[in-house]
Design a protein that fits this description.
Rossmann fold; 381 residues; 2 domains; globular; alpha/beta; seven-stranded parallel sheet; binds uridine-diphosphate-N-acetylglucosamine
């Protein structure tokens, strides 16, 4: 049994890590005849040290067995490059199963390639829907799910979405959230080990991430958000590790004056918006745990803050992760300046949302995935 596990972009790495660990755990208990060999393929969608290598280092993931090195491009270019390169890998390796995670272009490209070669696909984090097809990830989710043979979901709502799309119930498994497996495993270490931000006091800053094309590629929208952030930063300093795309757009739109670039992580004046490079996993987790609240347009951070019990304001009009609103600490504030400011002030005035941890977000999702794959697939071969 040969399994290919695909990772390509930053939000994939913390999702493949627990799956690989469980696979190794399973192999360690088998006779060598029954071992499953897994191969980690990195598409190279993300390639900067802080967007990729640093995650391998922090999470002690062994280096990818195969690196496709595709890099950036338009959606068509990037997807096509991954498909061509991944097809060659499949010809060479002849896998029995391809596991993809999340909703990035690498997920889509490798799913289409595997499906055309009649290789079964397992999709981890299936069934999430924003119902907004202007969002590139929504297209990736719908196509990947339609091609998958095993659909592993993070919440019961995702099962319902898949059933409504006509996907057979016996392909769908509600297992919990692998990203939370990693969060729970590393939370304490991140809190104790990272010393770089020691002059930031607990709950005395807000943390911000922003990278959605709909937020950062449009000058008017980015300006509206920036103006809100400037107002909030008069009350509480904002730490902003910015995605490369966002850094480029800030420069292009000549918004750099709104941001400060701290040297040696000394946030001396403790006012304003501090622009940093993207951070490695443990450093970012450390900042999340200690923050007063988080502003973000990321998908994963909405889930991580829910588990940490940390108030989260999501700068989007919709979310594919409604469980973080219904049960967690998340509030959708869109890109309206007044709404962003008002909800931030609410939190600063002690009225942050309190939530609970969603069902099965307990650190054991990868274990369930591997048990299901062994029972329903590996042992049947
Ligand atoms: C991708 C995912 C998104 C995820 C995000 C997390 C898709 C469609 N989107 O968006 O779901 O939330 O990753 O980061 O797959 N760049 C660099 N260095 C890098 C990577 C990217 O400079 O290591 C720059 C490039 O100029 C590139 C741009 O960022 O053109 C966008 O990268 P891309 O992978 O296309 O999409 P993301 O915006 O990162």
């Amino acid at each position: 049994m040969k399994i290919i596990l695909v990772a390509g972009a930053r939000p994939n790495f913390m999702k493949v890590d627990p799956i690989m660990n469980e696979m190794e755990e399973y192999n360690s208990k088998q006779t060598s005849k029954r071992n499953s060999k897994y191969i980690l393929v990195h598409t190279g969608q993300h390639y900067d040290y802080n967007m990729s290598d640093s995650f391998f280092k922090d999470l002690e993931i062994h280096p990818p067995d195969i690196h496709l090195g595709v890099g950036s491009g338009t959606h068509g270019e990037q997807t096509a490059k991954i498909m061509v390169a991944f097809e060659n890998v499949c010809f060479e390796e002849k896998p029995d199963l391809v596991i993809v995670v999340g909703d990035v272009n690498s997920t889509l490209a490798c799913s289409i390639t595997a499906a055309k070669l009649c290789i079964p696909i397992a999709h981890v984090e299936a069934g999430l829907r924003s119902f907004d097809r202007t969002m590139p990830e929504e297209i990736n989710r719908i196509v990947t799910d339609s091609l998958s043979d095993f659909l592993f979901t993070t919440c019961r709502g995702a099962n319902e979405n898949l059933k409504k799309e006509g996907i057979s119930e016996n392909k769908i498994y509600f297992v919990g959230n692998v990203m939370i497996d990693t969060l729970l495993k590393y939370k304490n270490l991140a809190e104790s080990k990272i010393k770089k931000f020691s002059n930031l006091k607990k709950k005395e800053y807000a943390l911000l991430t922003l990278h959605r094309p709909s937020n950062v590629d449009n000058k008017k929208t980015l300006q509206e958000i920036t103006e809100a952030l400037v107002e909030i930063s008069k009350e509480v300093p904002i730490i902003f590790p910015a995605h490369p795309r966002t850094q480029k757009m800030i420069e292009r739109f000549e918004f750099s004056n709104f941001f400060q670039k701290p040297s040696n992580f000394l946030f001396s004046q403790m006012k304003g918006i501090y622009l940093l490079s993207p951070l490695p996993y443990l450093e970012f987790l450390h900042l999340m745990v200690k923050a007063k609240f988080i502003l973000t347009d990321s998908g994963g951070i909405q889930e991580e803050t829910t588990v940490l019990g940390m108030p989260c304001l999501t700068l989007r009009e919709n979310t594919e992760r409604p469980v973080t609103i219904k049960e967690g600490t998340n509030i959708l504030v869109g890109t309206d300046k007044e709404k962003i400011i008002n909800e931030s002030l609410n939190i600063l005035n002690g009225k942050g949302k309190i939530g609970r941890i969603p069902e099965l977000w307990d650190g054991k999702a990868a274990k369930r995935i591997i048990e299901i794959l062994i029972d329903k697939y590996i042992n049947q071969k």
